[in-house]
Every structure is written in structure tokens, then in C-alpha cells.
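sry for the spam today, last one i promise. C-alpha cells for design, 376 residues
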């Protein structure tokens, strides 16, 4: 039997071989580009504003100024956006990790967390000192979940990131495997602690959970990160606006079409066109994590031509103070006192969300409201 390459050689004429080689090189280059930061930071087909904005220093206003003139700043500190990222040494993070300390190592695959060190440290319960890692950041506001990460320097000094294998979930008030991590951990010395991501993926995590990133040759200056999604992350840099007491302003949110407005939120909540056709099925519970993808498929969105994310959400208020589970959201357009409105075909007059926008979940202990509003 000839070897595989030999078989291919016999089978293809030499021009075919060249063609095959060119195809392989082309595909490899594409894959490489996907892996590097190139596609994330300068992809021309997407609205890059907030990503570029993340690294700009000039023209930034001090966020503390906004409250002098805008009520929007009063309760903002309590929103999920404001709390999307914090240091692992913050009180909220340490309180949760203290519960991890009480977990039975058998249930956490032999991993324990040591809170005696300067930074919380994941260790192997067997005391193997070669295998331990310092968790330095805590992602998520805790409304659904919190996940810790460890930042590490690669051989060139760029910042990589290890996503901890264990996530705290509010629904169980305890720890379980981080969504997206493999059932069985990798057999490397860091494998038991989680999955290691390269610098480009590391940057992406921080990019969606913060508002200013300083990057020197791939190294994230962690001490300078402005954590959370703040006013200027959604409204653009406001130095001149503050200096001119509002005379210089920006009308994006007033003039944007519904699709443009949804796409702005979708920069982090996931853009419909980033989602593969095969993934977009109404019965896929994972899709509920990506609100824009489902919402733009709803008849409410396509037929009303006025719906945006802010039809139901005030991004300046925490969910619990804006009656986010109320029927008022639907009655804006399906109101029985308005003869033009389409009413519920099942003649229901309340609990709209329960039947048309229920909370759904996959295997992780976390559930999301399905924004693909429809008859089920
Ligand atoms: C000294 C007062 C003052 C301060 C401080 C201030 N603003 Fe304003 N802002 C205004 C005024 C006045 C308007 C109304 C401008 C108009 O629409 O004509 C305005 C409008 C806005 C608008 C709506 C119109 C637009 O430009 O998008 C946003 C958003 C906004 N401000 C954000 C901010 C943020 C964010 C901060 C903090 C970094 C801030 N403002 C600080 C006075 C201020
Ligand atoms: C997650 C994105 C987001 C964040 C963060 C955010 N805003 Fe807004 N803001 C919006 C959107 C969207 C609108 C337009 C609202 C609408 O369409 O009803 C808006 C509108 C405004 C307006 C204009 C209100 C009006 O009636 O015209 C002001 C002023 C404002 N925001 C200030 C702020 C301030 C101050 C902060 C920080 C404390 C902030 N925003 C944080 C998304 C955001
Ligand atoms: C820079 C990235 C980013 C942008 C832009 C963004 N979000 Fe978010 N949003 C997040 C993150 C991260 C969270 C998760 C916070 C957490 O951990 O609970 C979140 C949470 C939320 C929540 C849950 C609220 C809560 O208080 O827990 C709502 C609702 C929401 N976003 C709506 C919007 C809307 C509407 C827009 C556009 C006006 C928008 N977001 C733009 C990143 C973003
Ligand atoms: C494209 C933007 C984006 C990237 C990249 C990203 N996140 Fe998020 N993350 C979000 C948004 C948006 C939410 C809010 C999801 C929701 O509540 O629907 C969120 C929520 C979370 C939460 C809270 C749990 C939840 O689902 O609400 C955690 C924890 C988290 N992210 C961790 C991470 C980590 C760790 C990374 C990197 C491995 C990462 N994120 C990368 C946008 C992003
Ligand atoms: C028709 C009303 C409506 C519209 C429009 C809408 N949402 Fe929601 N959203 C809801 C409801 C209801 C909830 C559940 C609130 C709760 O659990 O307190 C929710 C929850 C969320 C959450 C929290 C995650 C969860 O499931 O607990 C995020 C994030 C979010 N929406 C983002 C968005 C984004 C981004 C858009 C625009 C693409 C959007 N929403 C448009 C009604 C709406
Ligand atoms: C901005 C206006 C608007 C809002 C807000 C809105 N809808 Fe709709 N909705 C529409 C329009 C317009 C249609 C199409 C009606 C028609 O075809 O006669 C529609 C259609 C529907 C349908 C039929 C869907 C189908 O596939 O046939 C359902 C179910 C529905 N809406 C439920 C809701 C619920 C539940 C809410 C609140 C979570 C809601 N809508 C909020 C405008 C809206
Ligand atoms: C108990 C479940 C249930 C509740 C609660 C419910 N619906 Fe429905 N809704 C349905 C079903 C089932 C249909 C499909 C009826 C049919 O086609 O015969 C439907 C149909 C609809 C339609 C499409 C009507 C059409 O002619 O295309 C709209 C719009 C709608 N509902 C809005 C609402 C609103 C708004 C609320 C809250 C006030 C609500 N629904 C509460 C089950 C429910």
C-alpha cells in the first residue's frame, strides 16, 4: 500500500497539486487571521466605534461629572453594566470564594481556593505546589453568575487569560462548571483550573466588560482598566460635551434606525450576522443568551419598525427598579383600548411574558428570557 501523500501524488496532476497547496495555505491564513486580534479590532464590516474607543485617552471626561447635569447617573452604579467586572479582591468576590473554600474537593475535582494569599489562589487539594494559580479578576455582576479569571504573561509578555473552571451561579447559590468548558479537563498542569485563552481572546473578554483598556504590545495594563460598561462606552467620549456644558452633543441614539440602535447594543450582546445559520433555530435554548439575534426575528420587531432594545429597557436603571417583568412592555403595542392593535389570539390579558417570552435554559444552571417573541 502506498502512503497517503503517495496516493494523492498519483491521483493528482501537478497543476492540481499546486492548486491544492494554494487552497491549504489560503485556509490556514484565514484561520490564523481569525485567531489573532486582527479580525476583532479592525474588521471592516462591523461598527468598530466602541472597540477603538476603548483605547483612546484624549477627549475622555471624568464619569463623575455626568451626575451634575443628568438624572441618568443617579442609579446607574447599581446596574449590571456598571458591575460587569471587578477585582477578585473586592468584598463581593471574596464572599463568594469563601463558599468555595467550604466545597468538598471531591465535588470540585480536587481544586480548592486559598484566601490567605494576597490574591485568591486556586490550588490542588493534594498540596502539589507546582500546580496553583492566582485568580485576579471577577467577571459578571452576579445577577446570573460570576466567573473568575487569572491573567498570565506569555513568552512575549502579552496578556493571556485562564478562565476558571468553576463559576458561581445565583440560581443554585453555589458553584458549577463554567459554561462552555469541556466535561473533562485538559491534562496539562493548569488543566484542572480551567481553559487557557490567548491574548486576543483575553482582550475580548475585557473589551466587553470594561470601558477603557491600555494595551502595550499585547500586554494589558491591568492597573489602568476602567471596569464595567460606563456612560461613555455607550455615548462616546464626552470631554468636549462636559467642557461646553452640553453645547457639543451627539444625536446617535435620537437619529439611529431600529437596526442601527440594536446593532450598537449587539456589539456586546451578539450581532445577528455573527451567528451561524445553523445556530438560529427557535428551539435552541443557547440562543436566548444573545437577545439581539432572537429579537430581530420577532414579528414585533419586523412589523412595528419602531422597536429597539430601549422599547423595554432603560439602560440607566437596574432591572429590578424598572418593572422588567411587567405586561406594560407588551401593552405599548398590544393594548385592548387601541382598536388598531393586534390582541392576544388566545384572549389572554396578562402574564404575556410567561407564554411569549419565557425564561429558558440549557444545561448550565442559568436561564435567560427568550427575546424571540412568538406564539409557541
Ligand atoms: C454641565 C452640564 C453637563 C454635564 C457635566 C454633562 N452633560 Fe450631558 N448634556 C448636557 C446638556 C445641557 C444636554 C442637552 C443637549 C441638547 O440635547 O441640546 C446634554 C445631553 C446629553 C446627552 C443626550 C444628547 C447627546 O449628546 O447624546 C447625553 C447622552 C449626555 N448628555 C451624556 C453625558 C455624559 C455621559 C456625561 C458625563 C461624562 C455628561 N453628559 C455630562 C449637559 C451636561
Ligand atoms: C448600555 C448603554 C448605555 C449606557 C451605559 C448609558 N446610556 Fe445613556 N442612553 C442610552 C440609550 C440607548 C439612550 C437613548 C434612550 C432612548 O432611546 O430612549 C440613552 C439616552 C441618554 C440621555 C438622553 C436622554 C433623553 O431623554 O434624551 C442621557 C442624558 C444619557 N443617556 C446619559 C447617560 C449617562 C449620564 C450615563 C452614565 C451614568 C449613561 N447615559 C449610560 C444608552 C446608554
Ligand atoms: C460594552 C459592552 C456592552 C454594550 C455596548 C451593551 N451591553 Fe448590556 N450588558 C453587557 C454586559 C457585560 C452585561 C452583563 C452584566 C452582568 O454581568 O450582569 C450586560 C447586561 C445587560 C442587561 C441586564 C441588566 C442588568 O442590570 O443586569 C441588559 C438589560 C442590557 N445589558 C441591555 C443593553 C442594552 C439595551 C444595550 C444598548 C443600549 C446594551 N446592553 C449595550 C455589555 C454591554
Ligand atoms: C462580545 C462581548 C463579550 C465577550 C467577548 C465576553 N463577554 Fe461576558 N458577557 C457579555 C454580555 C453581553 C453579558 C450579559 C449576558 C446576559 O446577561 O444576557 C455577559 C455576561 C457575562 C457573565 C455573567 C453571566 C451571564 O451570563 O450573565 C460572566 C461571568 C462573563 N460574561 C464572563 C466572561 C468571560 C470570562 C469572558 C472571556 C472568556 C467573556 N465574558 C467574554 C459580553 C461578552
Ligand atoms: C419587548 C420587550 C423587550 C425588548 C424589546 C428587549 N427586551 Fe431584554 N428583556 C425583556 C424582559 C421581559 C427581560 C427579563 C427581565 C427580568 O428577568 O427581570 C429581559 C432581559 C434582558 C437581559 C437580561 C438577561 C436575562 O435574560 O435575564 C438582557 C441582557 C437583555 N434583556 C438585553 C436586551 C437587548 C440587548 C435587547 C435589544 C436587542 C432587548 N433586551 C430587548 C424584554 C425586552
Ligand atoms: C413596538 C411595538 C410592539 C411591542 C412593544 C410588542 N409587540 Fe408584539 N407585535 C407587534 C406587531 C406590530 C406585531 C405584528 C402584528 C400583526 O401582524 O398584526 C406583533 C406580533 C406579535 C405576536 C405574533 C407573533 C407571530 O409570529 O405571529 C406576538 C405573540 C406578540 N406580538 C407578542 C408580544 C409580547 C408578548 C410583547 C411583550 C413582551 C410584545 N409583543 C411587544 C408590535 C409590538
Ligand atoms: C396562557 C398563554 C398565553 C398568555 C398568558 C398570553 N398569550 Fe398571547 N397567545 C397565546 C397563544 C396560544 C396564541 C396563539 C393563538 C392562536 O393563534 O389561536 C397567542 C397569540 C398572541 C398574538 C398573535 C395574535 C394574532 O392574531 O396573530 C399576540 C399579539 C399575543 N398573543 C399577545 C399577547 C399579549 C400582549 C399577552 C399579554 C397581555 C399575551 N399574549 C398573553 C398564548 C398566550
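last one done:
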Amino acid at each position: 500500500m502506498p502512503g497517503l501523500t503517495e496516493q494523492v501524488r498519483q491521483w493528482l496532476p501537478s497543476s492540481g497539486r499546486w492548486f491544492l497547496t494554494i487552497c491549504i495555505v489560503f485556509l490556514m491564513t484565514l484561520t490564523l487571521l481569525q485567531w489573532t486580534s486582527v479580525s476583532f479590532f479592525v474588521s471592516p464590516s462591523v461598527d468598530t466605534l466602541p472597540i477603538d474607543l476603548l483605547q483612546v485617552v484624549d477627549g475622555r471626561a471624568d464619569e463623575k461629572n455626568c451626575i451634575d447635569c443628568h438624572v441618568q447617573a443617579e442609579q446607574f452604579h447599581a446596574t449590571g453594566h456598571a458591575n460587569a467586572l471587578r477585582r477578585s479582591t473586592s468584598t463581593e468576590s471574596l464572599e463568594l470564594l469563601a463558599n468555595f473554600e467550604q466545597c468538598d474537593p471531591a465535588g470540585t475535582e480536587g481544586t480548592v481556593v486559598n484566601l490567605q494569599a494576597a490574591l485568591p489562589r486556586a490550588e490542588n487539594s493534594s498540596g502539589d505546589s507546582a500546580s496553583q494559580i492566582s485568580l485576579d479578576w471577577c467577571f459578571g455582576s452576579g445577577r446570573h453568575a460570576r466567573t473568575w479569571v487569572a491573567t498570565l504573561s506569555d513568552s512575549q509578555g502579552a496578556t493571556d487569560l485562564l478562565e476558571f473552571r468553576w463559576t458561581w451561579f445565583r440560581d443554585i447559590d453555589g458553584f458549577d462548571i463554567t459554561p462552555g468548558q469541556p466535561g473533562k479537563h485538559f491534562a496539562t498542569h493548569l488543566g484542572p483550573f480551567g481553559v487557557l485563552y490567548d491574548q486576543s481572546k483575553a482582550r475580548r473578554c475585557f473589551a466587553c466588560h470594561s470601558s477603557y483598556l491600555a494595551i502595550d504590545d499585547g500586554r494589558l495594563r491591568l492597573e489602568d482598566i476602567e471596569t464595567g460598561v460606563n456612560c461613555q462606552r455607550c455615548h462616546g467620549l464626552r470631554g468636549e460635551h462636559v467642557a461646553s456644558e452640553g453645547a457639543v452633543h451627539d444625536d446617535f441614539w435620537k437619529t439611529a434606525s431600529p437596526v442601527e440602535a440594536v446593532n450598537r447594543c449587539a456589539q456586546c450582546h451578539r450581532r445577528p450576522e455573527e451567528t451561524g445559520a445553523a445556530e438560529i433555530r427557535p428551539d435552541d435554548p443557547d440562543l436566548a443568551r444573545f437577545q439581539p439575534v432572537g429579537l430581530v426575528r420577532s414579528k414585533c420587531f419586523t412589523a412595528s419598525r419602531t422597536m429597539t432594545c430601549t422599547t423595554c429597557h432603560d439602560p440607566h436603571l437596574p432591572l429590578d427598579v424598572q418593572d422588567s417583568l411587567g405586561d406594560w412592555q407588551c401593552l405599548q403595542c398590544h393594548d385592548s383600548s387601541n382598536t388598531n392593535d393586534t390582541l392576544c389570539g388566545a384572549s389572554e390579558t396578562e402574564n404575556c411574558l410567561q407564554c411569549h417570552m419565557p425564561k429558558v435554559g440549557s444545561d448550565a444552571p442559568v436561564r435567560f428570557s427568550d427575546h424571540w417573541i412568538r406564539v409557541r
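The mean pLDDT is 87. ok im logging off now
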